Amino acid sequence: MPIPILVVDDSAMARKMLIKALPKNWDVEITQACNGIEALTAYRAGKADVMFLDLTMPLLDGYAVLEAMQKEGLNSYVVVVSADIQVKARERVRQLGAAAFVQKPVKASDIEIILREYGIAL
Fold first, then answer.
1. 66-91 pLDDT per residue, tens
2. What CATH number is given to the structural domain containing 94?
3. How many CB atoms lie within 10 A of CB 119?
4. Under 8 Å between Cβ of 28 and 122
């Protein structure tokens, strides 16, 4: 049974690059969202056992998505994907429940290491 994956980024190119970086043999069903509102809607619809989440987006940014998920007690394995590599950004997303942080541009090897580290079946 495919794992529901949600890729959230306001850039269509960034979403495409991240999807290409996912392990080729991983049995997944991918949903895409271009802002935080779409991300929360897809998540609530059960489309995000694993979420790849950008921080900087219109309407509702990645921090707000994580805050909403935390307040609602929602559960998902969230990997933040961002060009913002500041220590404070990393600390904040961890406090908000993100499991991992990956710097843009995403490398397939980085994604695979993180997924294996957290026991995600590939």
1. 999 999 887 899 999 998 778 999 99
2. 3.40.50.2300
3. 7
4. no
* HSE value, Cβ hemisphere, 13 Å, CA-based, for 69: 30
Q: How many domains does the chain fold into?
A: 1
Strands 50-53 and 100-103: unpaired
DSSP 106: P
What's the CA gap between 116 and 4, in Å, rounded?
17
**Does 4 sit behind a cis peptide bond, omega within 30 degrees of 0 on the bond before it?**
no
Q: How far is CA 91 from the centre of its chain?
A: 16
Give pLDDT, residue 1.
87
Flag whether 40 is in a domain: yes
In the beta sheet, which residues pair with residue 60?
Answer: none
pTM for the model = 0.94
Q: Write down the pLDDT at residue 122.
A: 63
